[in-house]
Write a sequence for this structure.
């Protein structure tokens, strides 16, 4: 995959337009509709769909590189699009492993559908392993979902929402139900996204009042709790790798801006640019050393998903770990970049100021630091003794 040219799908002129609009959407707290329109036109929303179905036929490794590149222009746009790519990525995980059920996602992505991710719920730290949303079985085999989902990126524009809920009434209950719903009157999108950063994602609260998933859009019914089902691995693997990609892209942009500023800033004390200052050079070197570790890790794990590698139970440590390391690294790099750039970066109009705020969102995505460490501890030390 090393010969893959990300600039072919995300050319420099498109990135520059997205970058120029990013400051406006951050300031005005608006959704980047023009970004989405241009990305759609470029075929970006179907990059993970097989070529025989009309997509670009790329693998997760290539999509991760694209998302790193997109995040250098607009982290919020990249994070919003991430949620659509997660579902097309899960569909690819299914099809690569001969698991049916998500072909409609692949066809829909090519046809222009926008898929959003409706998994997060306030106070539900079980995430994929449980749900406070009620999934009521319907006579025809469909489900009616009632509950509240939070952090629903793409909230103003999605056409299909992938979500989960708990069936507590069927004969084999409880069962976690994964399905897709359309945007109808049974779905109420809040206008509550006024955040510190990642403002363009417009990840608003979504309230479901008996929203119907038709039988053909009910993808999986599984037991609650840790589960080897492909839906769990598919979501977890694609979600973590693409999240790591977005935050690694933020770090790259912050590093580039720090280098650019260091080469321009003149020191009255020395008469040279800050790029010649030993302390600044040490700081930039540290940023580069931290950043350089992540792209190869992301590529290796994404390639393993593409090539059906079997890491067994280690998968969850590897995946949560790469996301955690990417966020920690990106926060460190953004912090150091602010210091290299000086006081001007503290103004809200400065791009580094926006990146500094955007990167903070990373700690709230699953797997959060506590979950990542608990998973790693279990992998190395075994489970806690009761």
């Amino acid at each position: 995959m090393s010969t893959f040219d990300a600039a072919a799908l995300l050319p420099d002129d498109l990135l520059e337009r997205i970058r120029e609009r990013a400051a406006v959407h951050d300031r005005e707290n608006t959704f980047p509709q023009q970004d989405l329109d241009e990305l759609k036109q470029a075929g970006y929303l179907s990059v993970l769909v097989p070529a025989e179905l009309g997509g670009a036929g790329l693998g997760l490794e290539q999509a991760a590189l694209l998302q790193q590149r997109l995040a250098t222009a607009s982290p919020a746009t990249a994070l919003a699009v991430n949620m659509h790519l997660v579902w097309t990525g899960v569909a690819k995980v299914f099809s690569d492993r001969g698991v049916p059920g998500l072909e409609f996602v692949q066809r829909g992505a090519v046809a222009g559908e926008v898929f959003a991710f409706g998994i997060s719920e306030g106070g539900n730290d079980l995430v994929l392993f449980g749900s406070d949303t009620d999934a009521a079985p319907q006579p025809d085999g469909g489900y009616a979902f009632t509950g509240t989902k939070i952090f629903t990126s793409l909230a103003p524009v999605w056409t299909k929402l992938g979500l989960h809920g708990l069936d507590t009434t069927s004969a084999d209950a409880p069962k976690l139900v994964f399905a897709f719903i359309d945007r109808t009157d049974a779905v109420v999108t809040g206008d509550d996204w006024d955040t510190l950063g990642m403002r363009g994602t417009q990840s608003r609260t979504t309230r479901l009042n008996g929203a119907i998933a038709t039988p053909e859009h009910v993808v999986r019914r599984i037991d609650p709790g840790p589960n080897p089902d492909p839906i769990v691995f598919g979501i977890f693997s694609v979600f973590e790798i693409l999240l790591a990609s977005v935050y690694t892209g933020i770090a790259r942009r912050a590093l580039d801006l720090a280098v650019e500023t260091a080469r321009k800033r003149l020191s009255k004390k020395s008469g040279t640019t800050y790029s010649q200052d030993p302390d600044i050079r040490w700081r930039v070197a540290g940023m580069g050393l931290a950043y350089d570790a992540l792209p190869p890790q992301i590529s290796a794990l994404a390639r393993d998903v593409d090539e059906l590698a079997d890491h067994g139970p280690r998968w969850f440590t590897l995946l949560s770990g790469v996301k955690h390391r990417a966020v920690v690294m990106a926060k460190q790099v953004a912090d150091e970049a602010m210091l290299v750039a000086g006081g001007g970066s503290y103004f809200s109009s400065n791009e580094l100021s926006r990146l500094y705020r955007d990167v903070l969102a990373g700690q709230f995505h699953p797997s959060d630091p506590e979950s990542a460490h608990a998973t790693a501890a279990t992998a190395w030390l075994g489970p806690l003794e009761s």
Observations:
- The chain has twelve helices and eight strands.
